[in-house]
Amino acid sequence: MLVSYKWLQEYVDLSGNPAEELAEKITKSGIEVEGVDKLDEGLSGVVVGHVIECEKHPNAEKLNKTLVDLGNGDPVQIICGAPNVAKGQKVAVATVGAVLPGNFKIKKAKLRGEESNGMICSLQELGIEGKLAPKEYAEGIFVFPGDTEIGQDALALLNRDDEVLELGLTPNRADCLSMLGVAYEVGAILGKNVNLPKPKPETSSEQAGDYIKLTVEAKEDNPLYVAKVIKNVKVGQSPLWMQTRLIAAGIRPHNNIVDITNYILLEYGQPLHAFDYNKLGSKEILVRRANDGEVIETLDDVKRPLTPEHLVITNGSSPVALAGVMGGANSEVDSDTTTVLLESAYFTGGAIRKASRDHGLRSEASARYEKGVDPARVRPAAERAAELMIQLAGGEVLGGTVEADSLHIQPATVSVTLGKINKILGTELEMKQVEEIFARLQFETAVDHDTITVTVPTRRGDITIEEDLIEEVGRLYGYDNLPTTLPVGASAPGHLSEYQKKRRTVRRYMEGAGLYQAVTYSLTSVDKAAQYALENREPVELAMPMSEDRSILRLSIVPQLLEVLKYNLARQNDSVAVYETGAVFLKNGGDELPEEREHLAAAITGLWESHPWQGEKKPVDFYVLKGIVEGLYGKLGLESRLGFQKAGMEGMHPGRTAEILLDGKMIGFIGQVHPTVQKTLDLKETYVFELSLKALLEAETAPLQYTPIPRFPSVTRDIALVVEKEAAAGDLKKVITEAGGKLLKDIQVFDLYEGEKMEPGKKSIAFSLKYFDPDKTLTDEDIAKAHNKVLKALEEKAGAVLRG
């Protein structure tokens, strides 16, 4: 909400409270002021000038040579390129020595041989955004009304000497989406009275009821509708003061009728709509739900299909407005309008929110209806607008109003005890002080011993329970005045759970291994939803996605990490190693929320090591990533429970992919991304893994035990086994481990041979076996006994024979 400081002064005496100080007081009371914009900052030396002569520049077709009276008796020549400059105009002139936004200083100059002593300005050149400038002045200079005095400060006339406070409102403070709401708030903070408008428009003997019949079918969506009729209006420009106030609030001026409705929206927080009565095509207003298949063309010239979920204003048959959101083009007020039908209504937030969302229309009106307007202001806002249409458009207001009223909203009453207020705030306030605070808020109160009962006006719909009253007392008493106290009672130091400790260990290990942490979107597209998923589940779709690329909850982290690699490679970062810990989402049956499972994923590409001085380069490969997984298991004390098993997976290289096992159960996968996928994503050779972090961290681990330094030597035996080509080294290692008994302490694969000297369909795998007994030196007989047991098991269970 943008609040004009000068406009606010009309309702509250702000003397002694400059804008910056006022902003600080508002912020301390609970509503953040995000900034104060001094509109004339960097501006000076701009006055009203009178163009007394205007002719084409003799040497430039697109320039004009003007003679401008600045009110000091000495007209000056100014060269102007604006297409709309003309003799007789009152214009904003930046005189020689003036400063415009961007520290642009005006100097005497010669343009195509002609002297120019100043600059005739457009609104944009005075710091007003082009989208806020009236359309007739969007492409040229601004022209003041003909009765404007020459030589006046143009910046003051354009309200550029104002300051604008930007309020960062939370959804519960919809009452401050209006100047009157802010006035109540500031009045309470400063302890000042609030001067409210008291509209009393004069009416004619003709009655509005003779011009319009009103029917509301959708009473649950529109419990109150008020209509007034104003005849003989003259549509034209609004007075300058109204235009500049609208501009300061971020609204573009259009014409006096439309500007009045926007002005009341800002002043009262009550949206209004003005229909051209003669364009309605009937003498009836019917408010109903739209029929399926109906279409309305809104003021932005877009035809919009309607459904029965949308609330519309009709002329009895066809829609003339999308209620609370935008009017229809078929009833728009324009320069030919002479009779206005003025709408002021209370629409429920749900109906307006649905239409606004479905049609992508977010208007100032819909924003207020969605958050809730004050029902008590529906009628006063209509009266105030009618009064302004008399003053600014020469209108004649017909007697009476046409209403449909089924609204039953009463001010809420909330009670709280003084003891509870002091207990929660830690204060020692007296009842008189509390009463004064509510009086500043203009809340009616009644006191019964220790209990105060507050009647909350309808403008403050956010106050419903006693805690809300306590908050009002606290913020207006002053948060800075609340005493500082230490917590009383037993306390326990905070600590991480075992799961959190292990997760932190995992992250530190991954970073220590040389990978950077990535944080990617949990939302993905339909195409990527099922890629690399560990479980074949139907993906969870969002009801209201931001875009197609972010419409599905992810089942795997890997696709997002591949996008991270792609992004980096496209920016000449050739070697990338990243990991992420995050949730994937598994759909449950019915309307149950999806199950969130924490996964760990990593992706690497490029060089793993590079030592230019030594001329060494090691590209990433399967075993680099496998080593990282093995190290992770070791860090968590699970190295003996790790396993790998050859696997095939869509999107992965068929010969370089394996399942990651925990106690023989698959919890993830590891391998190279399929070359076709790499090519599609413009990736080099890339390796990834993903596993269930939840399964890994919830696995029970044996307590850490100290092992003394060995006193006795170990003995190593190397064996080369001839096996079938399809035999897996992991399976052979498992057989060796089971047969080796307690003396076998370590097994390592150190060679693989598939050369021409091998039989067809065979290969040789060499293992190094380490035997050790912590209590004695092993004899040859001990080693032979254990070793022969291993060889026998390999022959019987794996069909392996020693290579000669």
Describe the structure.
- With 804 residues, this protein is an alpha+beta fold.
- The protein has six domains: 2-39 and 163-190, Phenylalanyl-tRNA Synthetase, Chain B, domain 1 (2-Layer Sandwich), CATH 3.30.56; 44-157, OB fold (Dihydrolipoamide Acetyltransferase, E2P) (Beta Barrel), CATH 2.40.50.140; 203-405, Phenylalanyl-tRNA Synthetase, Chain B, domain 3, CATH 3.50.40.10; 412-477, Phenylalanyl-tRNA Synthetase, Chain B, domain 1 (2-Layer Sandwich); 498-698, BirA Bifunctional Protein, domain 2, CATH 3.30.930.10; 715-802, 2-Layer Sandwich (Alpha-Beta Plaits).
- 25% of the residues lie in helices and 31% in strands.
- It is built from 19 helices and 44 strands.
- α5 (240-248) crosses α6 and α6 (256-268) packs antiparallel against α9.
- It is elongated and about 125 Å long.
Features:
about 800 residues, alpha+beta, Phenylalanyl-tRNA Synthetase, Chain B, domain 1, OB fold (Dihydrolipoamide Acetyltransferase, E2P), seven-stranded antiparallel beta sheet, 19 helices
Number of strands: 44
CATH topology call of the largest domain: Phenylalanyl-tRNA Synthetase, Chain B, domain 3
- CATH class term of the largest domain: Alpha Beta
**How many DSSP H or I helices?**
19
Second rung of CATH, namely the architecture of the largest domain = 3-Layer(bba) Sandwich
Determine the structural class based on helices, strands and strand pairing: alpha+beta
Number of domains: 6
Uncertain stretches:
none
Distance between the termini: 88 Å
Please state roughly what percent of the residues sit in beta strands, choosing from under 5%, 5-15%, 15-25%, 25-35%, 35-45% or over 45%: 25-35%
CATH homology group of the largest domain? Phenylalanyl-trna Synthetase, Chain B, domain 3
What characteristic shape results from the CA principal axes?
elongated
Helix content: 25-40%
Largest sheet geometry: 7 strands, antiparallel
Instruction: Report mean pLDDT, rounded to a whole number.
Output: 93
